[in-house]
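Page 37, top half.
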Amino acid sequence: MNQTAQLRHFSQSQKERRILFCGDDDLDRAAVYLAAILDEQNYAFDYIPSALKFPDDLQLHRYRLVILSDYPRINISDHQLTLIEQFVRYGGHILMIGGWESFTGLQNEYNGTILRNVLPVEMLASDDRVNLSQGCVVLPSADQHPVIENIDWNRPGIIGGYNRLIPKNGSAIILKGKHLSITAGNHPQVTVNKDEIPLLVEGSYHNGKTGALAFDLAPHWIGGLVDWGDQRKRIDFNDTFIEVGYFYYRLVSNLIAYFYN
């Protein structure tokens, strides 16, 4: 059976090389957030839902960027991960997006694989998930970077969780987080922890660009960031739609453009 025939193909673009997007459950669930923005931004992309095994006959040379977002390690073989390593080694780009089945995650997903050499972060040896009831504010770590452009960082957004990551030597932190602490009473107070959490780390592996986003792009870890911005953005996609805050839309658009180019 031709396994690549099971992929979901989307294309409104004449871009020569495609994006491969894997995970986030399925297009009628969490994956719709990123997929809708990819489509609206005119990227040609193929989608592998979380329940589908990574095809053995997939031709990675057709792609420019591979995105693994909450894609179960059990569905991708060591051989296929080696092919992804070679894809990045020879100029392809990779972005891993956070979740319970990303990085180390709940069940030691990718820590023991060849991707630990490829990604710009060290993964923890045990459960790296951080779930927050009071949130983590997302902030830029640099004054200028393509990912943070055209966004009002004076009114930053909040996430509800992330994977704890350790940037490798030579990598760069693009987004950082600071935990919030809220106390109630007659005069509620909000304090911001001084410790900085790496949330978006970029690096390189031989000839390819690599990225690690510690939080996901769909509920629940995305928290209020999905509604970040006073203006709303509606995107119709695949017989459904998303409605998100404009700065969330801008951040995701910038993120994909940077790691695609």
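Page 37, bottom half:
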Amino acid sequence: MSVMERDAFVWAEQTFGRSQLGDARRTNRLVKLAGALAGQVGSSPSRACGGDAAANEGAYRLLRNDAVVPGEMAEGGFAATAEAATRYETLLAVEDTTTLSYEHAVVAELGDLGGDARSAKRGFFVHSVLLLDAESAHTVGLIEQARWRRDSAARGQRHRRRERAYEDKESRKWQQASERMARRLGATMPRVISVCDREADVYEYLKYKRQAAERFVVRAAWDRRVQGEASHLFEAVEQAPVLGEHTVRIAQRGGKQARRGREACLSVRASAVSLRPPRHTGGAGALEVNAVLAQEQAAAPGEEPVCWLLLSSEPVESLAAACQLLHYYTLRWRVEEFHKAWKSGAGVEQRRMQSAENLERMAVVLAFVAVRLLQLRETLDEQVAAKGRAERPCTEVLSATEWKILWVTQERSRPPRRAPSLRWAYESVAKLGGWLDTKRTGRASWQTMWHGWFRLHERVDAYLASRDLM
């Protein structure tokens, strides 16, 4: 039994065991379903239950049960994260919004996702908040997630957004996420720094964070009016003296806004600024924040120069303090890795439940499975990177059947008597996923690792099936 399967049901009990679903039997079914899905990542409930008819029927009965509220399923997982968070001195709440899209028979019950109006895809908008340990950057867990379906009638009304009250806008999701997170974390909340991208540059949200004495790092999207000699935000911070330089790693990104991963050397400025309230708020008084401006002076040809302006509650009295905030901001990308793990790893968009509510229940379970994928990847990276750990036997993460099949696949020879090293297992699984180490980093992306992991398990499943037929 591999590390993925060996700990899956223990993890499921710790994550969902305190979910209050109105009946202890429902909670028990939820734990069993989550454990099965965590042990067979990317599988359907039927396949994950491994032919156990009773377990399969219990899983689908839970997912089809209208009395089971998706939010109540998630609360057990949030409570487990809140408990784990008490062990850390400083936490980062990295958050963002994504979509879950589907195009099977249930689309009529789902919401508009924007984009091409002719698209057959519909689904959910989802806003998620992950907690990270600020010191180690390890993923602690999922602390908040909201899902909603957008009415098609709202399409094309973006230009009228200023006519709507803040309470009626989707942009209020940032504040609502913080409010729910604060309720769950209680006394731990003062240790939490919310880290958000430009979409969170909403004046009302920043004002809420200040009034609630909550900590934040938000990348500025708007060149807001400020008090002082300079009339606008960017001009005001550009007038501050350069504190020094700082190098950051820019993550690779695919899709329409593709970019290659690289290192960027940034000049760093910092200043305290007073943001004047936008006219549409009708508010009075300025909002005091600290700003850090990081600009790339010499980007390579064809590369868009990095320019980040961060607004924060944190004091910025030195280059080291400014660089700390820049580091926190780079960790925001972890939530994008979570989205990839949820979709590409856990396969949330491949599920074909027969109602929107059933899909949502499944999405909740798979969201926590996706967090576990991130945590397992971080653990494996740490084991391989740690001095002396790389040469430990691979049986710490692979079963005997797994590493022997991996050996035959990669080495094209009979397996040795002694299990090879953890480093060998890491590189072999990565190569199975298509890794060539062209950048000479010695590290594969998590997508490559999980692709390799799934390909290995296809071979393991085929071997076990053939053995059973003999």
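Margin note: Strands lie at 91-102, 122-133, 139-148, 192-196, 215-219, 242-250, 262-275, 287-296, 307-312.
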